[in-house]
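In response to the reviewer comment on reproducibility (Comment 2.3), we provide here a single inverse folding case reported in full, input and output, so that an independent group could reproduce the run without further information from us. The structure tokens appear first.
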């Protein structure tokens, strides 16, 4: 079991490394990672704080930020976000925080998340999140130094 887990973690990191190279080779990235204009794959950013889990947002309850649409599970979450978007929006525009710490960008999944010092961080996968969590403070310091430079000119 330990060997299988190690293999899966190494595979995720290797895949992320390939993905990082692919994403960073593109021209300037948008400030918020979005799929078809929707941030966090349609999940509610406020729910991570209030419900401690990813919750799908309602397409009828939205706010726009930096060219991306955020969806919310209810009007209360939308109001909280609108009052303080920096508090609730994922750090690094919702790009993989670990990738940003390595000087690149990568997509994320809603299930690979953590909150540290009141900020939401998303990762490429739960395996990458495990790697991120091994040195959160160091990874944040490196990511902060790279952001927003990794987005391009």
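Designed residues, in position order:
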């Amino acid at each position: 079991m330990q060997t299988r887990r190690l293999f899966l973690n190494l595979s995720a990191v290797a895949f992320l490394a390939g993905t990082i190279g692919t994403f960073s080779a593109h021209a300037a990235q948008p400030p918020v990672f979005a799929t078809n204009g929707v941030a966090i794959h349609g999940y509610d950013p406020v729910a991570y704080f209030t419900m401690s889990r990813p919750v799908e947002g309602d397409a009828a309850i939205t706010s726009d930020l930096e060219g991306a649409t955020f969806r919310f599970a209810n009007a209360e979450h939308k109001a909280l976000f609108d009052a303080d978007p920096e508090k609730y929006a994922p750090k690094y525009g919702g790009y993989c925080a670990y990738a940003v710490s390595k000087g690149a960008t990568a997509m994320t999944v809603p299930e690979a998340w953590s909150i540290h010092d009141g900020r939401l961080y998303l990762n490429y996968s739960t395996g990458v999140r495990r790697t991120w969590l091994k040195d959160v403070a160091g990874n944040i310091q490196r990511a902060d130094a790279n952001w927003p430079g990794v987005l391009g000119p």
